[in-house]
Recover the amino acids of this structure.
């Protein structure tokens, strides 16, 4: 709890010491952290590996963009509509994906999100295909101008802290305990009187909701949306953040998100092919440090130190 | 005819995936990029030997080799953790995709249709493009070949035993590790050769892997895991639905694509002919 | 009214009949022992009763209520509880958390997404653990306690739900003599409000705990009756000597 407060305070102080570039980077990290944390609700706490979470980020972003561009609605109307629409979609997808568990679930989530990705490219009349949708605007809650880096950062930070706090409450609640139970011993939980399918479906929808929130923040930040945001690569980056930071805790994905984004930013200055590096990092972490970078590095260091 | 040839291609793609998943319980997300890699290898081969058949053979072999190395040295290390294996195949698919981009550039490279099959063919009063007909024939031949392999050979018997009950198979003395590598190579070979065979229709282009992978998934989910018949039927249903979807509602073809999969999953989670629920 | 009535229960795997037309009736408060050699179908029978396995044919009634179409969790809410042959506890969690989860399963609180698990669940869990003599280690994670203690936790989890019918799947398996004594005492202390059906494949150990005994072989009921009737019946000896 104390570390959390310290981090929030440090984060709040960032714009006072760092320049615009870093403040923008920090905004991106917070948005990505919310995305990763929502994936972890399913993967780490539910034991449901999902490869299609970019679907919720992307659909929320597209809904927001389309409602703005085509219907010219105001932001205070768009946000709840986009969130509601995406969460509804999560409900339907959950009905389909949860017909299976484990690998079957993974393949279904992947197939579903890939279909959305393909549709975003082909439904040119709606989404303008490969051009993406541009000309979007950031919201102005209570008349605040969020077009500068610093005010936007505080907005994103506030939403991010709220999101993570709510997810933390969820995980610590009795429902969270039952979710963890279904991850560890689903058959036992059934025999104890729990409706395992319903528990998973509710979690799936909740995770989709927070994915949608990250999608709104994403489209506000970039003021632009492109089908690549719905891609498998995007879901994979989120997954990488969770695995890199460690799926066992709430903080893991947040740390992982920072690591992955910082890596991506630092690397793309030197290497053009980020995807290949992403692939190598994936393979490396999964094979050598499956429990996450922080515990993994600690373990390898201990082994190295004891041999020296 | 387009739907049939698409079905044939999807079968070549999905058969390998279904085999690997059925036997090794690995959702091989590299499969799309192996298909693409095969197509590119075929492109390069054809620059030296202008024969599609040779290119397909070369692609099949080289991709099989790659797959074998992948399975033997990486996947086997983490064979205890199913999720890890999936994530590794995902990572490798990114590596292959970017490597292809680096090696062959970002423009689509067409693969020429073989001379013999360039003219249209008359059959039962209809005119068909000869190559597309050839693809269907090839798919059927491969299907029969795989069926014979599964049903009549010792290797096939071992594979079937492994799919039905891996523990039992190990206990019965079947060399499971070698079998796994063999099957992975076979699956990879099918994907690689498939990429070349699809070449005259698809070309080789970056993103081919991302286009193919969801199709493979849909076919396998629809047809059922570990079943050759499932892959065959699933492939042709998917090809049929996709082609007609594209004709009717081009914007939403992708959505129409996954309708049969959803319907089947809703009523039979193990797919049409699956051995077990995925 | 019988606590548990099974009629014409059938289950086959592939072509192999695992449960082949089993019918039996357990009276309320009875202690029934089901024995039979390995492969006789005892655990399969339990899995069919709890709903972990779907039946091919037959009916299962709990206090005259037909439950064969109910899901596993619904059957639990109707008062059916079971322990498992293989330990299926939550290893990283403490003993009291494990039992608390069991108590939570029947409570509305399990759907609450805010706040924390109320302290009374842990207090009640400790009380149940005291019943099986484990309150001293209530704060330890499952992974750290001995096998015999884990077996007692299994029973505690089932008892916590105050079931009407309790299925014990080989509760004495793999236990030392001392531990076996402790577990037998726990089972003996179960109040008569709970009907107990127990599986054991070693007849001698569990004989004195049972009112009536059912002998299963190749998925069929071979012999059924009181202790003395079953022991005297030549078919019983055949089943055990024959294998």
């Amino acid at each position: 709890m104390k570390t959390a407060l310290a981090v929030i305070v440090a984060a709040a102080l960032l714009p006072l010491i760092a320049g615009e570039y870093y403040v923008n980077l920090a905004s991106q990290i917070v948005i990505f952290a919310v995305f990763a944390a929502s994936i972890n609700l399913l993967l780490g706490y539910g034991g449901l590996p999902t490869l299609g979470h970019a679907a919720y980020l992307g659909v929320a972003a597209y809904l927001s963009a389309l409602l703005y561009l085509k219907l010219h609605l105001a932001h205070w109307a768009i946000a709840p509509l986009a969130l509601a629409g995406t969460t509804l979609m999560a409900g339907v997808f959950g009905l389909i994906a949860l017909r299976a568990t484990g690998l079957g679930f993974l393949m279904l989530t992947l197939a579903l999100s890939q279909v959305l990705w393909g549709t975003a490219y082909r439904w040119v009349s709606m989404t303008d295909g490969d051009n993406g949708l541009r000309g979007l605007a950031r919201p102005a809650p209570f008349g605040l101008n969020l077009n500068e880096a610093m005010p936007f950062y505080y907005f994103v930070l506030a939403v991010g802290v709220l999101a993570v706090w709510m997810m933390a409450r969820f995980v610590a609640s009795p429902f969270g305990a039952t979710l963890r139970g279904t991850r560890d011993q689903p058959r036992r939980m059934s025999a104890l009187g729990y409706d395992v399918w319903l528990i998973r479906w509710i979690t799936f929808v909740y995770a989709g909701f927070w994915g949608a929130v990250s999608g709104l923040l994403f489209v506000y930040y970039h003021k632009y949306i492109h089908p690549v945001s719905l891609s498998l690569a995007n879901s994979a980056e989120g997954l990488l953040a969770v695995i890199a930071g460690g799926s066992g805790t709430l903080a893991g994905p947040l740390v992982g998100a920072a690591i992955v984004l910082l890596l991506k930013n630092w690397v793309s200055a030197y290497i053009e092919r980020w995807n290949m590096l992403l692939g190598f990092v994936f393979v490396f972490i999964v094979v050598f440090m499956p429990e996450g970078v922080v515990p993994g590095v600690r373990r390898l260091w201990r082994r190295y130190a004891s041999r020296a | 005819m387009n739907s049939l040839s698409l079905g044939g291609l999807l079968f070549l793609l999905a058969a390998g995936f279904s085999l690997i998943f059925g036997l090794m319980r690995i959702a091989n997300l590299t499969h799309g990029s192996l298909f693409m890699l095969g197509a590119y290898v075929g492109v390069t081969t054809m620059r030296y030997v202008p024969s599609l058949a040779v290119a397909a053979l070369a692609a099949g072999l080289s991709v099989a080799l790659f797959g074998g190395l992948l399975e033997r040295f990486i996947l086997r290390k983490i064979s205890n953790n199913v999720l890890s294996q999936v994530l590794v195949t995902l990572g490798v698919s990114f590596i292959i995709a970017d490597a292809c981009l680096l090696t062959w550039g970002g423009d689509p490279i067409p693969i020429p249709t073989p001379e013999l099959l360039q003219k249209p063919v008359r059959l039962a009063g209809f005119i068909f493009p000869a190559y597309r007909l050839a693809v269907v024939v090839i798919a059927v031949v491969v299907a029969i070949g795989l069926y014979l392999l599964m049903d009549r050979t010792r290797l096939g018997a071992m594979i079937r035993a492994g799919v039905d009950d891996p523990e039992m198979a190990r206990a019965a003395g079947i060399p499971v590790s070698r079998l796994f590598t063999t099957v992975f190579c076979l699956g990879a070979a099918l994907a690689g050769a498939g990429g070349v065979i699809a070449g005259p229709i698809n070309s080789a282009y970056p993103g081919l892997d991302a286009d193919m992978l969801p199709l493979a998934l849909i076919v396998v989910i629809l047809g059922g895991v570990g079943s050759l018949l499932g892959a065959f039927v699933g492939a042709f249903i998917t090809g049929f639905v996709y082609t007609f979807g594209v004709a009717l509602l081009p914007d939403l073809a992708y959505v129409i694509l996954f309708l049969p999969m959803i319907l089947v999953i809703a009523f039979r989670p193990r797919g049409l002919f699956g051995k077990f629920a995925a | 009214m019988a606590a548990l009535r099974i009629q014409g229960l059938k289950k086959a795997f592939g072509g192999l009949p695992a449960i082949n037309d089993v019918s039996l009736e357990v009276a309320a408060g009875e202690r029934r022992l089901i024995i039979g050699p390995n492969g006789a179908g005892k655990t399969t029978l339990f899995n069919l009763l709890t709903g972990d396995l779907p039946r091919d044919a037959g009916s299962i009634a709990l206090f005259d209520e037909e439950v064969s179409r109910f899901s596993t969790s619904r059957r639990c809410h109707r008062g059916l509880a079971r322990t498992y042959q293989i330990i299926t506890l939550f290893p990283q969690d403490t003993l009291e958390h494990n039992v608390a989860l069991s108590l939570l399963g029947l409570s509305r609180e399990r759907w609450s997404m805010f706040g924390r698990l109320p302290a009374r669940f842990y207090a009640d869990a400790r009380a149940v653990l005291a019943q099986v003599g484990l309150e001293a280690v209530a704060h330890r994670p499952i992974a750290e306690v001995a096998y015999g203690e884990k077996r007692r936790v299994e029973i505690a989890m089932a008892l916590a739900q105050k079931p009407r019918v309790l299925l014990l799947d080989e509760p004495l398996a793999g236990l030392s003599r001392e531990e076996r004594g402790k577990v037998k005492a726990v089972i003996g202390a179960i109040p008569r409000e709970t009907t107990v059906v127990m599986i054991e494949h070693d007849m001698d150990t569990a004989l004195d705990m049972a009112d009536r005994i059912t002998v299963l072989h190749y998925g069929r009921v071979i012999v059924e009756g009181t202790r003395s009737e079953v022991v005297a019946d030549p078919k019983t000896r055949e089943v055990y000597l024959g294998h």
Observations:
- The first helix of chain A runs from residue 2 to 17.
- DSSP finds 14 helices and no strands in chain A.
